[in-house]
């Protein structure tokens, strides 16, 4: 199902529900001054170009498409990046108006490309609308609660240990601890574990899954502040002192929100496209031979076809 995501531009895939509605455009795709007024107030106009307008929201949308800001983000009008993007949109508007004046919009090639661009835009608008309706704060909260229930925080133990080579050594060290000797000082003096010896045998916090089963069994069965009986592993004989037990803190809603929104977004896109494919009448044609068609859709003459010249062209009457 991951193949569906290749159909969607990154800004649509990563869309967050904070995106607001767009200002209506005129039918020809270039906004007129009268179109810049919303039902609830006036849309901020960034520039007027030969009787057309470029809105503040147009600048933000282009800035997001260029990766200058995040989707739904803001950009101060005095920011150099804002002015650069606005200058680019003004130049783009001037080129588009000149192309219209020259009648280039009505050429077959332009109409095909405009139609393809319209498909992409309409598809993204549909995705944005679908995601905005489905990925709500209530749904994000529900998924967070479900995930929190499934992955309850684990209990962690903080412990120190002393590693020696024999049971006799372990028993002797334990007698010293019972007599009042400090566990950490004994670890520095006697432990064979070079990774923890200089830290007084401190292992830090760990879960049952983070250590060997035999070690975990002793650690989680020993009360806090107590020293275990000597026990053996493949490394040698151990004494373990449990310093503290705690329940690991679970991730907060704010920490999990981006991942939940991304998951729900992918899910909605996949569901929508799957439904449309199942309901559609799709008939794939056999692929054409490479090189038969140019990018503009016109046929390419065979390589061995004679090239017509003025001398070779048939004369009238022949």
From TrEMBL:
GO molecular function terms noted in the UniProt entry: peptidyl-prolyl cis-trans isomerase activity
Reaction(s) catalysed (UniProt annotation): [protein]-peptidylproline (omega=180) = [protein]-peptidylproline (omega=0)
Signal peptide: none
Stretches of the chain forming a coiled coil according to its record: none
Claim: S-adenosyl-L-methionine is one of the keywords in the record: no
Annotated spans, Disordered: 279-318
EC number(s) reported in the record: 5.2.1.8
Composition skew (Basic and acidic residues), residue ranges: 279-288
Pfam families per record: Rotamase
Keyword tags: Isomerase, Rotamase
Alphabetical list of InterPro entries matching this protein: PPIase_dom_sf, PPIase_PpiC, PPIase_PpiC_CS, PrsA_foldase, Trigger_fact/SurA_dom_sf
Record-annotated PpiC domain positions: 154-244
The organism's place on the tree of life at top rank: Bacteria
Ranges of compositional bias, category Acidic residues: 305-318
Entry similarity comment: Belongs to the PpiC/parvulin rotamase family.
Protein name (Swiss-Prot/TrEMBL): Parvulin-like PPIase
Taxonomic source organism: Hyphobacterium vulgare
